[in-house]
Amino acid sequence: MTRWFAGQDLPWSADRLAEKHPFVVWAWGLLSLDFTGIAFGALFFCWSLTPSLLPRDWLFQGLIGGITAAIGYAFGCALGWAAHRYWLSKLSWWPPPVRMQMVAKIAIPVVSIAAALVMLVYSANWQRELAALMGAEGTTTTGYLRTLLLSMVVAALLISLWRVLRDLVRLIARYLNTWLRIPRSAAAPIGFVVVAFLGYTLVTDVLFNGVYSFVNSAFSLQNDETREGVVEPIRPERSGSPESYAPWETLGYEGRDFVYRGLHANELTEYNGAPAKEPIRVYAGLGTADDTDARLDVIIRELERTGAFGRKALVVIPTTGTGWVNPTAANAVELMFNGDTALVASQYSYLPSWISFLADREKAADAGRALVHRVYERWLQEPEATRPKLLVYGESLGTQAGEGAFDGIADIREMVDGVLWVGPPNANRLWSTLVDRRDPGSPEVEPEYSDGLVVRFADNAAGIAGQPGPWLYPRVLYIQHPSDPVVWWSPDLIFNRPDWLSEPPGYDRLPSMRWFPFVTFWQVAADLGNAAGVPDGHGHNYGTTVLDGWVAIAAPDGWTSADTERVRAVLDEIADTQGPEK
User: Are 233 and 240 within 8 A, CB to CB?
Assistant: First the structure.
């Protein structure tokens, strides 16, 4: 392997400099580059510039480009080492003449940078094409060129970090050999194990737990705040009201927002042209009681106090990490039933969904199971002829919490009257099982399970309404966009090409997206950071498609497509006046 800026290429005496300034020589060595590594690093960087699910700005692309370039560099170094050890060193003409080595030292970096610049121009065009597909603003080619500089910095930092760890292994091995007389062949593996153990301990016990505690504390402080304009409700149908068993100050940031907002009976009457009931919204925050069982006791008392079991529909909503409930989904079902509804939700964490997904995944499933089962057990006590429809709704991590309540489809059919799950994470147990067992010939991006007899998947309103064949009640519906990284991100992307990238693309994914080992994983991981930053109908923004989902699984008697469009117009009006609530 040939190194760029290696110590022997220095214009001064390397031995003399190493003797007087060993740290300078060591630090300079961190900057030396392997030429095979450069070539593969450039290749991986160019792969990272290909389109993924969502438009990326130069900052996101720079980070992903740097990470993938560092991975490519490591792969190239390993490949070059293996080739030299097991093949090239046995050739009579190796190493090549000095002149050829010098040409390679110049050509490889120049060609790599030139290829990267050309790919950046293509990448900017792809990003504009993807942005136009989603109705978003595209990037400029000149602005996108900043990606290269940022990627070089990120890659250099990662390569240097790896070399520091490598040198630490060597240092430990040297001391083990000198002090304890451990043979070099054994000292090196022991040094690696020591560094790996220390690194794992540092990351998990110090950094992870420390960051987790800090983030949890920070978001718990936000949980004590209240969104501007949100005040304590006065209507008894809401938790947090003066009559409520769940005090206003205990509901948390998202809980207070949930019970305050929404349409009231007079507004529903105006929009629907018929006398409406005041919608019931029940909520328990982490501060409402000391533990889950106590919070659920409050939930049941609130449902009984408000008369929730006498409504037409009782909707159980396992929440996302912070306790957020999609206001569009809540407004849609209340409009559809003209206020004759009761919505119930409970907070289980202070943390946003993406952190809860990494740190509290089992906690989400346990919380969803506890909430659904407790409400179900109380619901069963009502006369079968008069009790409300029992529906379950979940979005994003809330779908994982909701799935935790059921062992399978048979369990769902026995317990509830309909399920609507939107934007399910790829790691969802039930979702992944259904997708893996989909009917032969149906695509992963819009699978069909058992001829759609009970469970269906759709990517937009037309897909919900347009599926043929009988659909039995109770119905289960998953809504998932082809461009939603929450749905399609998985660690499996590191080594395996998923079916959805082998199939014809969905309506909002570019056909030029390709799978590359390691690279696609990081591309889709970066898309997670912008999942909600695209217009409705794309990414993780489902807009009023949730209304079509409600209509599909639980439409009131006599409901028509004209009713759906009337309610959609109201939801659009609310969104225009109140703005998005995320």
Answer: yes
Cis peptide before 95 (omega within 30 of 0): yes
Question: CA 522, CA 65: separation in Å to the nearest integer?
Answer: 9
Q: What single DSSP character describes residue 493?
A: G
Give per-residue pLDDT as tens, 524-533. Answer: 998 988 888 8
Please give the pLDDT value at position 92: 77
Question: Can you list the positions of beta strands (E) in 384-527?
Answer: 389-395, 418-422, 455-458, 475-479
Q: Where are the beta strands (DSSP E) in 363-450?
A: 389-395, 418-422
User: Do the Cβ atoms of 323 and 345 come closer than 8 Å?
Assistant: yes
Identify the CA nearest to 398 among candidates 492, 478, 295, 341.
478
Cis peptide before 242 (omega within 30 of 0): no
> Of the candidates 39, 26, 32, 37, which has an alpha carbon nearest to the alpha carbon of residue 9?
32
Q: What's the distance, CA 343 to chain centroid?
A: 26
Within 10 angstroms of residue 505's Cβ, the number of other Cβ atoms is 16
Share of the chain above pLDDT 70, in %: 88
Distance, C-alpha 1 to centroid of its chain: 40
Judge if pTM exceeds 0.85: yes
Measured distance CA(58)–CA(64) in Å, rounded: 10
**pLDDT tens, 79-107?**
988 988 888 777 877 888 888 888 888 89
According to DSSP, residue 452 is labeled G
Model confidence at 12: pLDDT above 50 = no
CB 537 within 8 A of CB 481: yes
CA–CA distance, 273 with 275 (Å, rounded to integer): 7
Backbone angles phi, psi at 447, to 5 degrees: -75, 160
Please tell me the distance from the alpha carbon of residue 434 to that of residue 507, in angstroms, as a whole number. Answer: 22
Using a CB cutoff of 8 Å and minimum separation of 24, what contacts does 557-563 make?
A: 559/336, 563/336
SS3 of 281, please? strand
Backbone angles phi, psi at 321, to 5 degrees: -55, -50
